[in-house]
Amino acid sequence: MPLRLPDRLPAIELLKKENIFVMDESRAHSQMVRPLKIVVLNLMPLKITTETDLIRLLSNTPLQIEINFMKLKSHTPKNTPVEHMMMFYKDFDILKRQKWDGMIVTGAPIELLDFEDVEYWQEIMGIFDWARTHVTSTLYICWAAQASLYHFYGVPKHRLPKKMFGVFHQRVLVDHLPIFRGFDDEFMMPHSRHTEIHRADLEQVPELTILAESAESGVSMVMARNGREFFITGHLEYAPDTLDKEYRRDFGKRDDVEMPRNYYRDNDPQKGPLVTWRAHANLLFSNWINYYVYQETPYNINEIQ
User: Fold this and answer.
1) How many CB atoms lie within 10 A of CB 266?
2) Which residues catalyse the reaction (predicted)?
């Protein structure tokens, strides 16, 4: 089954070119199906790119899924047209009246700020708290993972001596969980961040389970509340060329830019990326949708607690 997306969302035409089956709301309304309702709080600056990346992964399921996009009232994006935000995004004040089968909160390029110094910190803490009673399962990605771990469990973030930038081997630590069904013992995950969370801090919180980690990039996946919350420190959703675009954007303009590790063929940017994470990315998102959203959410969505 396809994803149900807002009419005229740019991702629709982009993904149709990749032979990914999506349909707009007008066609979806003709089908008598109770779709899973997923809300995405997109904090990334290039919103259309992030929308497309996430929709590409969410489409890899036989279930019909309705996607809605949330925006903050306390922050105005600078890199996305106002018309796009007005047409496809709704304020939290509107969306909070509903309950949701699943939620995704993305990263944001603000990790070097203390959490309390982020202009929308108060608003996003309210959204995190709301999700616990209005969403069956929530994926927190990169900065959102660090922010929610700090908010809920007091886990601090730590500044890295240099940017964690590249694609790194991750080791599965709890292989019997459904989130890892079909996974190999190791998988690859892209990372692009200046801060990290420490295993020692996580181990002080009994409610947290460390699911995967890397000798190079540290803890990459954490779970809480039996899968109602997942915290992912990297970017499995990234498209093949995302790290390349970031590297070429910053090279020569910043003194802390290094070539992304384990990314280019023969470590040569001229040869382009060697994609090593997409299969597990699709598997993780489909496992999340199937085992932690679809299998757990009530048919009457208003019964979510």
Assistant:
1) 7
2) 142, 235, 237
Q: Residues at the annotated binding site for substrate?
A: 163, 192, 249
Q: What is the pTM of this model?
A: 0.89
In a domain? residue 285:
yes
Whether residue 26 is predicted with pLDDT greater than 60 in this model: the reply is no
CA–CA dist 46, 31 (Å, integer): 32
- What are the two backbone dihedrals, phi and then psi, of residue 164, each rounded to the nearest 5 degrees? -80, 105
pLDDT at 30 over 50: no
Residues contacting 266, CB < 8 A, separation 6+: none
Q: Which long-range contacts (CB under 8 A, 24 or more apart) does 17-22 make?
A: 18/56, 20/55, 20/56, 20/59, 21/59, 22/55, 22/59
Q: What is the CATH number of the domain that holds 123?
A: 3.40.50.880
Q: Where in the sequence numbering do the catalytic residues fall?
A: 142, 235, 237
Q: Is residue 49 part of a domain?
A: yes
> Residues forming the annotated binding site?
163, 192, 249
State whether residue 101 is helix, strand or coil: strand
